Amino acid sequence: IAWHYRAGNTKARYLPNWEHNKLEEFIWWAVPIAIIAVLAVITWRSAHALDPFRPLDSSVPPLEVEVVSLDWKWLFMYPAEGIATVNYLEIPVGTPVAFKLTSDAPMNALWIPALAGQEMTMPGMVTQLHIEADAPGRYQGLSSNYSGEGFAGMNFPVVATSTEAFAAWAAQVKASGAPLARDSYMMLAKPSENVPAAFYRLADENLYTYIVMQYMVPPAASSTMSDMGAMSGM
Predict the structure, then answer these.
(1) Could you tell me how far CA 228 lies from the centroid of its own chain?
(2) Fewer Cβ within 10 Å of end Cβ, the chain: N or C?
């Protein structure tokens, strides 16, 4: 505009009463609207396709794993297999794995870079993540959210094996692992650093529910808090 209407351009037309040009207005509104519409469709599809709560498309039933981040270690529970592990995760190749994640410590984040993006864990909250290993191998798992002094030691191997090898491993852990119930869990949950892999027989099938629900306000306490709030507002 500054160049076109410079003093030396005698051909520039001055139109003080010009108001509308329908063609030009249509162009400068239609082009950005079209761009935004295309980007909106791409964003919508990508966001839903990559939703961590969305199960993977597969004819194979998923393996359910309950994940708890602790100070400073990872607890993995396999409810169907009746086993649990610390700082070690084994999964069958070609089988979707459905994670249910929570925390019994400060907020953290599970990350297996070769298989999936990170997913946060928080006390009293359950989030989800779905992964699948396409080939056997040993992958790295870690914490991607700083959570204190022992954060650097929250690493664990992810071993992807055949379905038969996984079944044999799970059976061996169930037969030889120490029992994990609420009392032994309370000992495990105490802060510790650089914890080696450990294997347990899951002795309490409701342990994960207990870990999540322990942060919820009991009904009696909730009623008391409501009554106190009502009294303070009088």
Answers:
(1) 37
(2) C
pTM over 0.90: no
The tens digit of pLDDT for each residue in 169-190 reads 999 999 999 999 999 999 999 9
Name the CA radius of gyration of the chain, rounded.
Answer: 28
* E strand segments, 60-191: 63-70, 73-78, 83-86, 89-92, 97-103, 108-111, 119-121, 127-131, 137-143, 155-161, 178-180
Strand partners, 63: 97
Take residue 162 and report the two structure tokens written for it.
């055949």
Enumerate residues 6+ apart whose C-beta is below 8 A from 198: 85, 86, 87, 88
Kindly report the number of other CB atoms within 10 A of residue 65's CB atom. 23
Amino acid at 127: T
